[in-house]
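FW: tagging you since you asked about this chain on Friday. Here's the raw sequence from the shared folder, copied in full. Didn't touch anything.
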Amino acid sequence: MPVRTTADDARVRVQRRRVLLSGTIGTTIEYFDFLLFGLIAPVVFNQLFYPDADPVVGTIAVLATFAVGYVARPLGGFVFGHFGDRIGRKPIMFVTLVLMGAATTGIGLLPTYAVIGVAAPILLTLLRCVQGFALGGETVGATIMAAESAPHGKRGGYAGTIQIGGALGSVLASLAAALVASMPTEQALAWGWRVPFLLSAVLVLVGVYVRTRIDESPVFTRAVAEAPPKAPLLVALREEPKACLTVFLCVITETSMLQLFTVYALVHGSGELGIPTSVMLNGVLIGNIVGIAMNPLFGRLSDVVGRRLLISASLVVGALYTAFAFFPMLASGNAALIVTAMAIPPAVIQTMIFATEASFFAELFRGAARRFSGLAVSRQVGGVIGGLFPLIAATVSAAAGSVWAVVGYYAAISAVSLTAVLAARETHREALT
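HL: got it, structure written out here
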């Protein structure tokens, strides 16, 4: 018996390491694939896919195409959440990864407007929809697997480790975008922009291999020992509406935060302030390198001080930083200040909420057999609003003639999210079963 127990314990430890590695690789790929579009699009896509449009209209069209990926997420959340609660987390994580990689590779192979005319932006939009559809399940599956596989009292650290992939994927996407931005314009437009999208296929193959070697979530396996619910989303909405609402409201600002400090900042900085894109991308790169180390630290800290404290701090600091530091530093014209302004959010502010919410959201749902559906749909519907941030910000800024309209909008949604977090229960000491 002691030998069997030791062997079982060793297997559990191996599986936990595989889940962490699998989730980290998958999250790296998802952020690389999805953010790559947002970072490269403002640089070249308006010229390649919307060449006949006015420059301002072309920029808005590119941002609208970017936002379409978020609009497709709720459908992915509904489909993959349903089957994630019916047949398991592992097969869903496999499918979403393959779809995500296939769509990104497809963008790299896509003919431009000059070759196939109006079909080019249409196909680009469709591929963005596939990306968003896949991401609707991927962003939830990896963190749920980590939280459900972690030992009690260490879920924050485990889920925070998964979020390293977000920073690492952002680093890779920033490096790729910086490389494209540094190329001669003719080469970047002719073929340079395609290379990062095509390289995504290599990352996907690695991720698929790792995911074939993990076991199903033990918490889910126990929860569905009997027949799982036929409509897990309806069960989640009926029995845990507060958890669904909390996730929905919190994700609005979490997603907007990412869009504000990356996509919108690049559009605003390069288009209105004349800042070289390479300078801003250097800040994004430095910040995410620091974020690789900060993600597990913040996740582990949330195991000690609680989830709500760190998430609330991120929301408050983010709103104050946007109003009193971020835009003034960008407008300074000083390269060092601009790099610093772009680096602080991914290093600290975004990381604080990303690392903590990974475990917090899963813990809000008490039932494992409805957790994937309730979390996926709530998260992705909130992500639609947050994903529209660059488009909304560009529109309100143009209408008001001032960036302060953007600051006001971001402060308002931050206040709503903060209210939801403060009204939620603290979860870090609860059991998932």
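FW: The CA atoms of residues 50 and 58 lie 6 Å apart.
HL: agreed, and The mean pLDDT is 86.
FW: great, closing this out.
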